[in-house]
Design goal:
Helix content: 25-40%
Distance between the termini: 47 Å
Shape: globular
Bound molecules: ligand FNR
Strand content: 5-15%
Order of helices and strands: HHHEEEEHEHEHEHHHHEHEHHEHEHE
Radius of gyration: 20 Å
Number of helices: 15
Number of strands: 12
Structural class: alpha/beta
Strand order of the largest sheet: 4-11-10-9-8-7-6-5
Length: 380
């Protein structure tokens, strides 16, 4: 497929859908129950209006920003998403190559289909990565992975995902459970050394499962504020980013753990965990209303449903410092490997620039609430 003929992220998804296996498509596309949160994630941006100003010099436009103090060229980044090689052999390494080209940040999933070492192997100087952790029942496995991160200086933070202590019910994925079994290995965790070989959690599932369910095997469901952050502090000195915050209460609690916690990601896991959980926009609005000091204490990133530059800009206006894309990067791989991912970054960068210039804004840190009318989505 000629990538230049694909003009937006929906075109990319459509092209990928024709090329990738039914199993890969179902795993990527799927979301919890009735896919309501997945749908809200995107439609909520469509209800927010922009307020363009005139007589502003918009000959130049700078999309660069910083994440946790690290310079990046784009205010959006690639979210951690498992199993990129289901879409294309370039896998997560291919995503890294495209990110290098555009100066974008990438968060590597613990359930990546390549090892973190392989993914960052050809990184450019200054390229920024995070590594995402699902704490394992066998804590030694997670500790071994955290140790490996110490040898990868390109990995600047640990992203701890908290919105899916158990997998959501994803029926598209489940319907494919008996189709094939040629999954790329879950490289990272399987290679991690384990001290407790006799643990019952180490056994593999007996009956066929969807890809999502099988990846959750061994993930801990017993994490708490009181126990998990102190445990992490013992095993990593990297800053922590908490992913999957869905209420202003938890955003506020997270901010009390600064400076160990340096950012939170408002996310409902792309609608893949609890269906009818709120889109990030609602949580952003709650934080603005009930505990705006959170924005001063830690960085607030969001993800879910981003398809257009206008979506990115609206999230930034609401106070997000970073905006993640999950499925678009996976479908981009399916459409054209690493060049497909580069095409997605190119499209979203151009759309973001166009939106900013038409709004009359030349730098991302000048975007604010005065550039939008969010009345239609303000709830209380
Ligand atoms: C994910 N996501 C995810 N999150 C995470 O913390 N660890 C993971 O391994 C995965 N795996 C994963 C696989 C697939 C196929 C998808 C679609 C998503 C969630 C991801 O980081 C992000 O929150 C959402 O994908 C954002 O929503 P969009 O951009 O897909 O709408």
């Amino acid at each position: 497929v000629d990538l230049d003929t694909l003009l937006n992220l929906d075109d990319i998804e459509e092209a990928a859908t024709k090329q990738i296996s039914g199993k890969a498509w179902a795993y990527y596309y799927s979301a919890g129950d009735d896919l309501l949160s997945k749908t809200f994630n995107n439609t909520v941006y469509k209800q927010i209006l922009l307020r363009p100003r005139i007589f502003v010099d918009c000959t130049s436009c700078d999309t660069s920003t910083t994440f946790l103090g690290h310079k990046v060229n784009l205010p959006f980044y690639v979210s951690p998403a498992a199993m990129a090689r289901l879409a294309h052999p370039d896998g997560e390494w291919g995503i890294a190559q495209a990110c290098a080209q555009y100066g974008a940040m990438q968060v590597i999933s613990q359930n990546a289909s390549m090892t973190p070492e392989q993914i960052v192997a050809d990184a450019k100087p200054g390229q920024v990565f995070g590594w995402q952790l699902y704490v394992q029942n066998e804590r030694a496995k997670s500790e071994a992975m955290l140790d490996r991160m110490k040898k990868l200086p390109a990995v600047k933070f640990i992203c701890l995902t908290l919105d899916a202590p158990v997998p959501g019910k994803r029926e598209h994925d489940e319907r494919q459970k008996n189709v094939g079994s040629n999954l790329p290995v879950r490289a990272a965790v399987q290679e991690a050394s384990s001290t407790s070989k006799t643990s019952t959690n180490a056994k593999t599932p007996e009956k066929a499962m969807g890809v999502g369910q099988s990846l959750f095997w061994g993930t801990a469901a017993d994490l708490t504020w009181r126990t998990t952050l102190p445990w992490l502090a013992k095993h990593t000195s990297l800053p922590i980013v908490l992913k999957g915050i869905q209420t202003h209460e938890d955003a506020y609690l997270a901010s009390l753990y600064a400076p160990q916690v340096k950012a939170i990601i408002l996310s409902n896991h792309g609608g893949r965990a609890l269906d009818t959980a709120p889109p990030a926009v609602h949580t952003l609005l709650e934080i603005r209303k009930y505990c705006p000091e959170v924005f001063d204490r830690i960085e607030v990133w969001v993800d879910g449903g981003i398809k257009r530059g206008t979506d990115v800009v609206k999230a930034l206006c609401l106070g997000a410092k970073g905006v993640g894309i999950g499925r678009p990067a996976l479908f981009a791989l399916g459409a054209g490997g690493k060049q497909g991912v580069a095409r997605v970054l190119e499209i979203l960068k151009a759309e973001t620039e166009t939106c900013m210039r038409l709004l009359g804004v030349d730098r991302v840190n000048r975007l604010g609430m005065h550039h939008i009318n969010a009345r239609a989505v303000e709830r209380d």
